[in-house]
Design goal:
- By secondary structure, this protein is an alpha+beta fold.
- It is built from seven helices and twelve strands.
- The strands form four sheets. A four-stranded antiparallel sheet has the order 1-2-3-12, covered by helices on one side. Strands 10-9-8-11 form a four-stranded mixed sheet.
- Strand 6 and strand 7 form a beta hairpin.
- The longest helix is centred in the N-terminal third of the chain and has 11 residues.
- The radius of gyration is 20 Å and the shape is globular.
- The relative contact order is 0.22.
C-alpha cells in the first residue's frame, strides 16, 4: 500500500494525485511450490530463565533463510538471503481492540486517523509543487474496504477502497460503526506512530522485519506458507484470508468475512497466532523494495540520507514495512499470506486491514544482526 492518506484525499475529490502513486503493490498471482532448498534453521539463543512475560512467547533466534526465490513471488521478496537474528519475546497475538481501548482510556491518546490532516506533512509524500487542497477535505478519517457488488478491474484500487471521514480504530467502518462484539478482534486503522506510542506505554517495541519473518516461519525454512507448502492441507483453513473472487465475492469458507477474533486459528510451533492473514502487521523497518537484493550484494546500498525508504513506484514514499497479509489477500489478487511477503505502508496512515503486535528484548540482548 502506498501513500494511503493521499489516496484518501483522492476519494474526497482532491484531483492532484494519481493512482500510480498510491496503488497497492499487489497483482494477480498464480500459486506454485517454493523451489528453495529446505535448509534447517539453526537456533542459538537459549530461553531466558526468568518468567515469561504475560501473553508472550519466546522466539529462540538463530540463522535462517529470509525472503524467497519462488518464481511467482513479488520482486520485493527476492532473492532469498541467509540471515541471523537473536532471540526475543513476541506477543502471541495481535493487539486487540480491548487492549488498545485500555491504552486510550489510561493516556487519552488520539490516533492519527482521529487528527486533522497536516498539509505540511502530507506534501512531503507528494511531487514538488502539488497544490494544497481545500481545508474541507483535510479532515480526520481513514481508508475502509468497501467491496463492489460485481467484479471490477483489478488495476484500480479506488473501486474497493473508500476514504471515510470519521473512520478510526473505534469506528472501523465510519462514525456510525463501533466495536461492539469485536473487543477481541485486532485493532485496525493504526498508523506507525500509534503503534509506537502503545509500545512505549506497555514497555515493548515493534519487531524488525527480520524478527517478524523469523517468528512467522515457526522453525520451517523453504516453505511457501507458515505451515508448509499447501494453503489448505486436507481442506483445512489455517488463516483468515479471502476466498472467492476478489474484491466482489468473498465466500468466507474460513468462517470470516472481515477480521476474526485473535486465536481463531491454530498457532505456529512458536505459539504465535495469526502470523499469516487476519491483518497486516507493522514492523519498525523502513520499506525498501530492494532490501533483499542489497543484502545479497546484487544492488547498491540505499542512500538513507536522501530517503530512508525506497519505492520505485513512488519516489516520495515514507513507508514502513508491513508483513503477513490480511483477510483481503486472495488467490486471484495480492497473494501475500506468506512469511516472505512484504509491502510498504505510509507511516502516517492506517487502513481497515492493518494492525500490529509487539516484541520485547530479554535482558542484556545484543541487538546486532549478522
Amino acid at each position: 500500500m502506498k501513500n494511503i492518506r493521499a489516496k484518501g484525499l483522492i476519494n474526497t475529490k482532491v484531483a492532484f494525485l494519481s493512482l500510480a502513486i498510491i496503488g497497492f503493490s499487489c497483482s494477480e498471482k498464480s500459486q506454485t511450490q517454493n523451489p528453495e532448498s529446505e535448509d534447517q534453521i539453526v537456533y542459538d539463543t537459549p530461553m531466558p530463565t526468568k518468567d515469561t512475560p504475560e501473553g508472550m512467547a519466546w522466539i529462540p533466534g538463530g540463522e535462517f533463510t529470509m525472503g524467497t526465490n519462488e518464481a511467482d513471488a513479488y520482486a520485493a521478496e527476492k532473492p532469498a538471503v541467509r540471515l541471523k537474528v537473536e532471540g526475543f519475546w513476541m506477543d502471541t497475538h495481535e493487539v486487540t481492540n480491548a487492549e488498545f481501548a485500555e491504552f486510550v482510556e489510561q493516556t487519552g491518546y488520539v490516533t492519527m486517523a482521529e487528527r486533522p490532516i497536516e498539509w505540511e506533512e502530507l506534501k512531503k509524500q507528494l511531487p514538488p509543487g502539488t497544490p494544497k487542497p481545500d481545508d474541507s477535505v483535510l479532515v480526520p478519517g481513514s481508508l475502509v474496504f468497501t467491496p463492489p457488488p460485481y467484479q471490477v478491474p483489478l488495476q484500480d484500487i479506488s473501486l474497493w477502497w473508500t476514504w471515510v471521514n470519521g473512520a478510526s480504530w473505534k469506528h472501523p467502518e465510519g462514525p456510525d460503526s463501533n466495536l461492539e462484539g469485536r473487543e477481541n478482534h485486532p485493532v485496525v486503522h493504526i498508523a506507525y506512530d500509534d503503534a509506537v506510542a502503545y509500545a512505549e506505554w506497555v514497555g515493548k517495541r515493534l519487531p524488525t522485519e527480520i524478527e517478524w519473518e523469523f517468528a512467522a516461519r515457526g522453525g520451517m525454512n523453504g516453505k511457501r506458507f507458515a505451515w508448509g507448502d499447501e494453503l489448505t492441507p486436507n481442506g483445512q483453513y489455517l488463516a483468515n484470508t479471502f476466498q472467492g473472487t476478489f474484491p466482489s465475492e468473498n465466500t468466507a469458507m474460513d468462517g470470516f468475512l472481515g477480521t476474526s477474533p485473535v486465536k481463531s486459528f491454530a498457532p505456529n510451533t512458536f505459539g504465535l497466532y495469526d502470523m499469516i492473514g487476519n491483518v497486516w502487521e507493522l514492523t519498525s523497518d523502513w520499506y525498501d523494495a530492494l532490501k533483499y537484493a542489497r543484502l545479497a550484494g546484487e544492488a547498491p546500498k540505499l542512500d538513507a540520507g536522501m530517503n530512508p525508504c525506497y519505492n520505485p513506484d513512488n519516489p516520495f514514499a515514507q513507508e514502513r514495512v508491513i508483513k503477513g497479509g490480511s483477510y483481503l489477500c486472495a488467490a486471484n489478487y495480492c497473494v501475500n499470506y506468506r512469511p516472505s511477503a512484504r509491502q510498504g505502508q505510509a507511516y502516517d496512515s492506517g487502513t481497515s486491514n492493518v494492525g500490529f503486535r509487539l516484541v520485547k528484548d530479554p535482558e542484556n540482548k545484543n541487538l546486532t544482526l549478522k
